[in-house]
Amino acid sequence: MKIALLGNQNSGKTSLFNALTGSNQKIGNWPGVTIDRIEGKIKKHDATITDLPGVYSLSPYTSEEAISRHFVLEGKPDLIINIVDVTSLERSLYLTTQLLELNTDVIVVVNMIDLLEKKGIKINLKGLSEAMGVTMVPVSAKTGDGIDRLLNIIFRHKYKKNKHQKIYPYDVETFIQNVMMAQKCDRFAAVKVLEEDLEFRVLMNEETKKAHTDIENKYRMDGEQLVASLRYEYIEKLKKDFVQIKRRKITKSDRADSIFLHKIWAIPIFIVMMMGVYFLSIAVVGGLTSNLISAAFNGAKTLELDFIFTKVIFDHPVAGLGPLLGNWLKSVGASPWSVSLVVNGIVGGVSAVVCFVPQLMMLFLCLGILETTGYMSRIAFFLDRIFHKFGLSGKSLIPFIVGAGCSVPGVMSTRIIEDPNEKKATIALVPFVPCNAKLPIISLICSVFFGGYAFLFALLFYFMAIILILGSAIVLKKILKRKEHSTFISELPSYKAPDFLYIGRDVGDKTAAFFRRAGTVVVFFSVIVCILTSFTWDFKYVDNVSITVNQSMLAGIGNAFSWFFYPMLGGHGGEWMWVASVSSIQGLVAKEQVISSLRVIEAAGGPSIQQLFTPLGAFAYATFNLFSIPCVGTISTIHGELRSWKKTGLIMLCEIVVAWLLASFIGIWGALL
Amino acid sequence: MKKQKKLLLRSGQDGHLSDLRRGQKCVVLNFHNDNAALRRRLLDMGITRGVVIEIKKIAPLGDPVDISLRGYELCIRKADMEGIDIRVL
């Protein structure tokens, strides 16, 4: 059995999908979280269920909505589960009236039933179900109430057949019946003829045209407007008969909005909130944990913990996992290079990125709360005016914030943007947002060179990202010839309490993904770096006595690209310049690998980060790595969205040029001071 | 270009949806709009003839506007509201 899950944006389709299939797909309280169809199996039953992007009607508006229409019309589902948000019933049932014109059976699932009392809504579901001729099941996808009953109705086939209830006035119904008879088409197509849908124009003959004009004249509206009006009139009548709403004048959401959308305070509050997110992640959690974890892996003579602006020093040596493992390997007679491979390559490489896990988890947690409460929609709402000036949509902010987690979902979430040019511009700019893999670069450079003030310098990188995004947006606006009219139409959902169960699982999933990369990509490349730094081109072992690491194979490779980094690093690194270039190249695989590579080379006899960079050089180097070409995962996602290697390549070229110019400017300008 | 201060539309007067201030209510009379896709979207969102709309919130920078209709709230740019003729209630 093939089931399609369809409903308005933000009506809780994915929550229901998760409840039915037991998965933890991304949910959020803003319109357009689901951007592609996702298939799942219903537990203990032989049925696939497809979660689709939210739509308001079967006339698609954005690319992600077209996916839903296509699946419902061409995918031939056996059953449509139409999820309806009880708190905005009128608009939800509008879609239902369209679905009931198809030749598929429909079950209407009335969601958020747990909010009925809170919202002061009384609804006679039995009467409404009778009147519309469709089975209605009340559930709360969030608490799980009613899910068992829904499954029972689906799999015992206890739902009503779609009997195409007549909802229009007599003369309009007659027109529809006549078209169906004359053209041998279904009700859906006949209504489309009435709407003068271009795709169905072939079904319009002379006789129909005359009848059509008569109806338009009678109602003094064109077909499209008429059908929409009649649907809503039908629903208004149902609502009057079966629903009672005691509306409070001022809701809690309104009260919250009088602060979060305040004329003067909205933007300062937003800035403070975003700063708070990074302050908590980098300064509080990061400062306390990253040295601790690093010491646990690699050992340390003294343990230094940063706590905001102070340094806490424990004058006590720590024996780390790596050195202990190394001693044991030596004691069983392992060769020096294999000891180095395990201690410096694997343990050193992995620990270089793993020590950032706690601050990433904090970041994921904060972003998760922002996403599920509904604040994201407010951000899009009040920044639209500014973003519009730069040729972007207020909705561009959602990809940017999602991109602060990872660019891949960031780029994919651009599908919610209506205007194709605003969408393209946003795709090109998402990689400029420092993602979670870039956070280790920022965090490491800042904590090594700027100590307790690391957090302030970290914010400087984010500030640079904003300037860069807005600056590039202006240029893009000039290049992409913009359509006269771009639109921004979005629902403003009420605030909801964050769903900590979901957020917890989501943080867990994302952290697991980070560990997977650390365990696969980072281990693999760290081992390669370790091997390439351990041998010269004629396979002599680098013992750091007669042969130094500067003669290794990796140095040879890196030196070929060193010229590229001279302007930003100045002469400081000297013969070590290759370390910067090979590490940067590895950033293409995964950005955290930059840090891992620096650490592995250091352990193999290379320079420490202070030897390699001046503080300014480090800042410039980090700038380059943050804003140049993103990782391959992001590149392929960008290609997936733009469907053009030419455009994707162009974006990559621009990004590397911009990053290089910016970093070189910082390096050269700083050296002149 | 000088910014004209728009007069407050009073109850019973006709105008465009974009002319209204915060807290005002109106009933939709008609559409005039060249952008077919936008028009379709507005219809789908429930902005049909006769529907009652209230201006609920205005973004801190003056645009877009949050309107309330049919029991839910919709954000929309002023430019997109110009094509909607209304009568103030």
Unreliable runs of chain A: none
Low-confidence runs of chain B: none
How far apart the termini of chain A lie comes to 71 Å
Structural shape of chain A: elongated
The percent of residues in helical segments of chain B reads 10-25%
Order of helices and strands of chain B: EEHEEEHE
Describe this structure in words.
The complex is a heterodimer of chains A (673) and B (89). By secondary structure, chain A is α/β, with parallel strands linked by helices. Helices cover 59% and strands 8% of the residues of chain A. Chain A has a six-stranded mixed beta sheet, with helices on both faces. Chain A has a two-stranded antiparallel sheet with strand order 6-8. Chain A has a two-stranded antiparallel ribbon with strand order 9-10. In chain A, helix 3 packs across helix 10. Chain A is elongated and about 95 Å long. Chain A starts with a strand and ends with a helix. By secondary structure, chain B is an alpha+beta fold. In chain B, 15% of the residues lie in helices and 36% in strands. Chain B is built from two helices and six strands, in the order ββαβββαβ. Chain B has a six-stranded antiparallel beta sheet. Chain B starts with 13 loop residues before the first strand and ends with a strand. Classes of the chains: A alpha/beta (673), B alpha+beta (89). Chains A and B meet through helix 3, helix 10, helix 16 and strand 11 of A and helix 1 and strand 5 of B. Strand 11 of chain A pairs antiparallel with strand 5 of chain B.
How are the SSEs placed, and which strands pair?
The complex is a heterodimer of chains A (673) and B (89).
Chain A: E1 2-7, H1 13-21, E2 38-41, E3 48-51, H2 63-74, E4 79-85, H3 89-99, E5 105-111, H4 116-119, E6 121-123, H5 125-132, E7 135-138, H6 147-155, H7 170-183, H8 187-194, H9 206-219, H10 223-242, E8 243-245, H11 252-260, H12 266-298, E9 303-307, E10 310-314, H13 321-331, H14 336-354, H15 357-373, H16 375-389, H17 397-403, H18 407-412, H19 420-429, H20 439-450, H21 454-479, E11 489-491, H22 500-534, H23 553-559, H24 566-569, H25 577-586, H26 593-603, H27 609-612, H28 615-627, H29 632-642, H30 645-672
Parallel strand pairs in A: 1-3, 1-4, 4-5, 5-7
Antiparallel strand pairs in A: 2-3, 6-8, 9-10
Helix pairs in contact in A: 3-10, 5-10, 7-8, 7-9, 12-14, 12-15, 12-21, 13-14, 14-22, 14-26, 15-22, 20-21, 20-28, 22-26, 23-25, 25-26, 28-30, 29-30
Chain B: E1 14-16, E2 25-31, H1 36-44, E3 52-58, E4 65-69, E5 72-76, H2 78-81, E6 84-88
Antiparallel strand pairs in B: 1-6, 2-3, 2-6, 3-4, 4-5
